């Protein structure tokens, strides 16, 4: 696996990313991470290309090795109120606010962001597969959100969120058709019976 890079060598940079943006249920979860300058990891990569076991291993390493990290959940009601893009940016801002170490620069996965305080930032498309700090944030966001959805599964097991994590799988859509929506579903996504039946 190719080693990811630092954006600025020997400079405190915060990487930030989110998970759960395309889900029908559950929060948008954002993380921000500052890794030690010169940090090296053979395993760290975009969370989407890592197995669950690999994410667990590297996630534990990040929690141990990071100079600072912060993870935030933006609940479905807020996603509905401000839309999923703004919820993602809000989550990243809140995660950055939770860092105990002040960054000198912010790296953002994707192509849309709003300036955060006085800090410079750069949006990088597919940055979670290019830069270590963004990849680290993607892993922490994914791991935290998956844990969150496993807990919600205990409350609403018929949707099998422990498996689909709230994403729009055929199984999840069938469960919505049969059992309706929960308080954890995003109402602004206009999940209607006709949409669901057409897409099964």
UniProtKB/TrEMBL annotation:
Lineage top rank: taxon: Bacteria
Cofactor binding note from Swiss-Prot or TrEMBL: Manganese or magnesium. Binds 1 divalent metal ion per monomer in the absence of substrate. May bind a second metal ion after substrate binding.
Keyword Nuclease: yes
Cross-referenced SUPFAM superfamilies: Ribonuclease H-like (SSF53098)
Enzyme class, first EC level, given as a word: hydrolase
Binding positions (a divalent metal cation): 17-18, 109
E.C. number(s) listed in UniProt: 3.1.26.4
Reported function: Endonuclease that specifically degrades the RNA of RNA-DNA hybrids.
Stated name of the protein: Ribonuclease HII
Provenance organism: Muriicola soli
């Amino acid at each position: 696996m190719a080693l990811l890079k630092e954006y600025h060598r020997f400079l405190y940079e915060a990487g930030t990313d989110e998970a759960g943006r395309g889900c029908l249920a559950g929060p948008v979860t954002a993380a921000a991470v500052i890794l030690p300058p010169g940090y090296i990891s053979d395993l760290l990569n975009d969370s989407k290309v890592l197995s669950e076991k690999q994410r667990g291993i590297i996630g534990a390493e990040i929690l141990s090795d990071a100079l600072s990290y912060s993870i935030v959940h933006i609940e479905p009601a807020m996603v509905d109120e401000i839309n999923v893009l703004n919820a993602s940016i809000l989550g990243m801002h809140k995660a950055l606010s939770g860092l105990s170490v002040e960054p000198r620069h912010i790296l953002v996965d994707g192509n849309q962001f709003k300036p955060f305080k006085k800090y410079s930032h750069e949006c990088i498309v597919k940055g979670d597969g290019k830069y270590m700090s963004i990849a680290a944030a993607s892993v922490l966001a994914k791991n935290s959100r998956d844990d969150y959805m496993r807990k919600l599964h205990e409350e609403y097991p018929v949707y099998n969120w422990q498996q689909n994590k709230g994403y729009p799988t055929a199984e999840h859509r069938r469960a919505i058709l049969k059992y309706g929506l929960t308080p954890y579903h995003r109402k602004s996504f206009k999940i209607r019976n006709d949409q669901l039946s057409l897409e099964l």
